[in-house]
Specification:
Helices cover 30% and strands 30% of the residues. It has eleven helices and 23 strands. A hairpin with a 7-residue loop joins strand 16 and strand 17 (341-352). Helix 1 crosses helix 3 and helix 9 crosses helix 11 (464-480). It is elongated and about 85 Å long.
Length: 482
């Protein structure tokens, strides 16, 4: 017997459980895409399935809504696949084992994929119904959202007529998302020349930082290991000469780096002096970040006398200058939405090669021209320092729409149904709404969804009661979009 049998609305929970039974991790979406196509054929719906496995399903408006403006319902087909060490699931082949306990749905030892399987279940339940009033519908289900929004980037929006979009990829009931940042990955590359030097090899390492997502946690005041490493090298170099061999830190450009280290060659007789300076700067950093990064450590590991191919003085000076002068962190706060970071950048990856040092940034802004300005600042500094800049993965901002009929309607309906005001919010992170807004001028869009906890982790769960309330809320919105 199905785990979710007996729950209402029955079609929503039936489709959600069927989706959970189909492997659908990012990059493995052919089977779930075909499932949606089979659904369309079963219900005699027009559909488009592209080479990426994106699926668009079309349905005419119900009686009285035939001539209404079409509405898009949008979500994504893929899920994040994480499992506990004890789990034996093969995400490429196996479905999930779901559980229902005390009104909460979860999965046994794995992520649940409520993000964004519930959106797909809602959409299919609406499409399958003959008695839900709604305008003409365009249900757009994308793939590989979790790994870079690749499906939304590739989809052909010219086939879509909607200019009203209900994105169902949010995880907090009572929150209406109305804006998000656009972004780009900017990689600064500084060429270096090397020479053979002698001395004592040492490693200067910063660790123990909190880190976090560079969109969601950029405003938490947390230290960036790459930035602090550059500052330490500049300040300590005023007292103790060194030759710079390498510096490395961070793993992802969109994550605030928690660790970074540099290999140096110093005069044999200066090791104690550098160790004392390391202790001094650890105290300074610990004081500055005592709240946000209470476990910060700056340490010096002293090796043996040796020879090494280090950067020459000019090359090292340029690298340290870049670390000191490149813009970083919050650049501007929004004047439309209090507390929202509008523009920022994060030096997420610092990497040394034989002939160059690379610095990879995640640049974000909800105002496209401010994102462009930041990229220009990086480009200008690279020109001055003799480096280059390469930009990839550019995606547009979803700018706040001061005059949004959809937002106003959804706020009104929420107040009537819940007896309180929803929270209208914006994110300093990318969502698919930005890509659709960029491709479809005039698009009026709001993102919402039921309560989910700990998404993208093996503790992910979803509230049954919230799914039910959000279903009723969605149907009332469709009813009023006549």
């Amino acid at each position: 017997m199905a785990v979710l049998a007996g729950l209402e609305p029955a079609p929503v929970f039936r489709y959600f459980e069927e989706i959970c039974g189909i492997p659908h991790g990012s990059g493995n979406t052919k089977q779930i895409s075909d499932y949606c196509v089979a659904f369309a054929k079963e219900h005699s719906l027009r559909y488009i399935q592209d080479e990426m496995n994106n699926v668009i399903l079309f349905k005419d408006g119900t009686a009285g809504y035939e001539d209404s403006a079409p509405v898009m319902i949008q979500g994504h087909l893929d899920m994040v696949c994480e499992k506990t060490p004890e789990s034996t699931i093969d995400f490429e082949k196996d479905g999930l084992t779901i559980r229902l306990e005390d009104g909460v749905i979860s999965a046994d030892g794995t992520t649940l994929g409520g993000d964004d399987g519930i959106a797909v279940a809602y959409a299919l339940a609406i499409l399958a119904s003959d008695d839900i009033p709604h305008p003409p519908l365009e249900v757009v289900l994308t793939v590989d959202e979790e790994t870079g929004m690749y499906g939304a980037t590739a989809i052909d929006c010219s086939v879509l007529k909607s200019r009203t979009m209900l994105n169902m990829d949010s995880e907090d009931e009572g929150y209406l998302l109305v804006s998000c940042a656009g972004g780009v990955r900017s990689v600064c590359r500084l060429p270096v020349s090397r020479e053979t030097v002698s001395g004592t090899a040492v490693i200067l390492k910063i660790s123990g930082l909190t880190g976090g997502h560079s969109g969601v946690e950029i405003d938490k005041g947390r230290a960036n290991a790459n930035v602090l490493l550059g500052r330490a090298l500049y300040e300590m170099g005023k007292s103790v000469p060194y030759a710079l061999v390498s510096l490395d830190g961070g793993l992802k450009d969109n994550a605030i780096p928690r660790e970074a280290s540099a290999m140096l060659m110093i005069p044999d007789e200066r090791t104690e002096e550098l160790a004392a300076l390391t202790g001094k700067w650890e105290e300074i950093f610990a004081n500055e970040y005592r709240v946000a990064d209470p476990n910060l450590k700056l340490e010096l590991v002293i090796g043996e006398p040796a020879k090494a191919r280090a950067m020459d003085k000019v090359s090292a000076g340029r690298v340290i200058a870049a670390l000191m002068q490149l813009p970083r962190g919050i650049q501007r706060m929004s004047t439309d939405i209090p507390g929202l970071v509008q523009t920022s950048l994060n030096l997420g990856i610092l990497k040394t090669e034989e002939s160059a040092v690379e610095m990879s940034f995640a640049v974000r802004s909800s105002v496209s021209t401010e994102k462009e300005e930041l990229v220009s600042r990086l480009e200008n500094l690279m020109e001055v320092l003799g480096g280059t800049l390469e930009n990839t993965g550019d995606y547009p901002a979803w700018e706040y729409k001061r005059d949004s009929k959809l937002r106003d309607l959804m706020v009104e309906v929420f107040e009537e149904m819940y007896g309180r005001k929803p929270v209208v919010q914006a994110l300093h992170a990318g969502v698919e709404c930005g890509l659709f807004s960029g491709a479809m001028p005039g698009l009026d869009c709001v993102s919402f969804g039921p309560d989910m906890q700990n998404i993208h982790t093996t503790s992910e769960s979803m509230s049954v009661a919230s799914v039910q309330r959000t279903w009723a809320y969605t149907l009332e919105i469709l009813k009023r979009l006549k």
